[in-house]
Amino acid sequence: MIVFIYDGTFDGLLSAVFTSYDLKIVPEKIMATNLYNHGLFDILTNVSTDGEKSSRVWKSLQKKLSPRNYQLPFHAFLYGRDEIDQTIFNFIRPFPPTIFCRSKRKWQTQ
């Protein structure tokens, strides 16, 4: 299982989103360092917080959200619910859509 570990800050979470796009990897879990329990088959990627990367993700997100919802991811992060970082990550970077390819008669992702 691919796991992204970040420092627990909102900038760290946005840096993890950037890293996901940069490496073309969608992790199965994203967790703060202090909440992570090592799993036997986990493949860890430690994400360092980078202000420039998080700023790029935040600006891109602001372009895609309506003005009324600009602060939605940040407010959700502040709420502090368990696994909220994974929820925010999935909101910002959804999994690729799965489609059925009729010519090959199987499911594919785009």
Structure description:
The chain has one domain. Residues 97-110 have low confidence and may be disordered. Helix 1 links the parallel strand 1 and strand 2. The protein has four helices and five strands, in the order βαββαααββ. It has a three-stranded parallel beta sheet. By secondary structure, the chain is α/β, with parallel strands linked by helices. The protein has helices at residues 10-23, 51-64, 72-79, 84-92, and strands spanning 2-6, 29-32, 43-46, 98-101, 106-109.
Secondary structure layout plus pairing:
Elements: E1 2-6, H1 10-23, E2 29-32, E3 43-46, H2 51-64, H3 72-79, H4 84-92, E4 98-101, E5 106-109
Parallel strand pairs: 1-2, 1-3
Antiparallel strand pairs: 4-5
Nutshell version of this structure?
This protein is an alpha/beta fold and 110 residues long.
Strand order of the largest sheet: 2-1-3
H/E order of the elements? EHEEHHHEE
The helix/strand class is alpha/beta
**Count of separate structural domains:** 1
Strand content: 15-25%
Mean pLDDT: 83
Broad shape: globular
Number of strands: 5
Low-confidence stretches: 97-110
Main sheet properties: 3 strands, parallel
**What Rg do the Cα atoms give?**
15 Å
**What is the helical fraction, as a range of percent?**
40-55%
Oligomer: single chain
* Total DSSP helices: 4
Distance from N terminus to C terminus (CA atoms, Å) equals: 21 Å
Provide the descriptors you would attach to this structure in a database record:
5 strands; 41% helix; alpha/beta; 4 helices; single chain; two-stranded antiparallel sheet; disordered C terminus; globular; 3-stranded parallel beta sheet; 110 residues
